[in-house]
C-alpha cells in the first residue's frame, strides 16, 4: 500500500480469538444464509469485535485481520464492537493467550509504559493501577527509570527488586480492563480513541 492510498495509522488490525465456520449460534437465519463469524481483539487498543468473515476464506485462531476501515478489510465482511461478556466461551479462554502474545511481541511499547507512566492524581500513579504494584514497587520503578530508561522486561525484573514478571502484570491489567467496563481508569483498552479525543 502506498502512502497515497491512505494513512497506515488509520488501519485497525485485530487477532482472531474464535472462528465459527457455521456462524453465530444466536443468528436466527437458516444455516445456508449464515456466514462464518467469530471474535477478535484489536492489536493496538485491545478493543473487542464480533466479525463476519468472507465465506471463501478459512481462518484460524490467531490470524491477523483488518477490521477498520471497511475499505481496507480483506476477509472481514462485517464488524462491530462488543463487550467481554458478549464473547463466546472459546474467545474468552483464548483472550489471555492472545493478549500475552501481543504484549510479548510489542515488548518495547509495553516497557515504555513503565518508562513513561505518569501520576493520574496527587495520590494515584498510573503504575499503581497495575496489579500487585504498591507504593514500594512504584517508587523502585520511578527511582530506577530516573537513572536510565528500561529496555526490556528482563531488565525491569533485574533492576527493580521485587518486581517479578512485569509482562504478566500488564497482561493481568489489560484483562481486568476488558472484563470490567466499570473501571474508572482505562490505561490500555481503548487507548487509541482516548488519544484521538484529547
TrEMBL record:
Query: InterPro entries recorded for this chain?
Result: DUF655, NA-bd_OB-fold
Transmembrane domains' residue ranges: none
* Any single Pfam family the record assigns to this protein: DUF655
Question: Could you tell me what this protein is called?
Answer: Adenosine deaminase
Q: Which organism is it from?
A: Natrinema pallidum DSM 3751
